[in-house]
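Researcher: Sequence of Peroxiredoxin follows. Predict its structure.
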Amino acid sequence: METTQQQQEVFTMPRIGDKAPEFTATTTQGEINFPSDYKGEWSILFSHPADFTPVCTSEFMTFAHLEEKFKKANCNLIGLSIDGLYSHIAWLRTIKDKIEFNGMKNIEVKFPLIEDISMNVAKKYGMIQPGESKTQAVRAVFFVDPEETVRAIIYYPLSLGRNFDELYRALIAMQTSDKFNVATPADWNPGDDVIVSPAGSCGVAEERMTATDNLDCKDWFFCTKKLDKDLVFKEILKK
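Model: Prediction complete. Tokens:
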């Protein structure tokens, strides 16, 4: 029975729309209480397998390089590894002093990196995938909104580095949906047309098909409209 419960803990993870599981943790930037410390702002909580590994090093350098860009979009970055605090500190110091990647060097990681030797946080968020490793967290990404709700989840295997353009695009797209009450189609980027919610009645559907305003309806259920890139960023990015 105990083994079964432990396995269930390993595989349990919050779903989209759930409140983000709460935890208190020691980090390279002091103690944090997640998600309450970040209420009112977006957060990206992400895990990586281990310190002093090349793929993780490239990711942390990239995240640190882009931190101000995410901050301007009202989003905090919080990393997690199952390694200990002193390992974290030594690794981040090595990154700053010795590592050059993709034109980046002297990179200082200022966002918190969680110590999770007990794997308590990793288990709460389903970051341990036994098919990959019983002792390393896969590359999980959780987007948590200002109301402390999980809005998106992306999982990568241990060997695959993340696409940071996509992480930023997803963040901006979700905020755009919230702000303008629209959906974003495949491959959407700010400035592209957005999707208007499907008509809820036959009358509305007919009106849409005959409308002469800024709606472009291919059929009653598929209507798009233009949304200016500058307007999107004006409403979303911090001044």
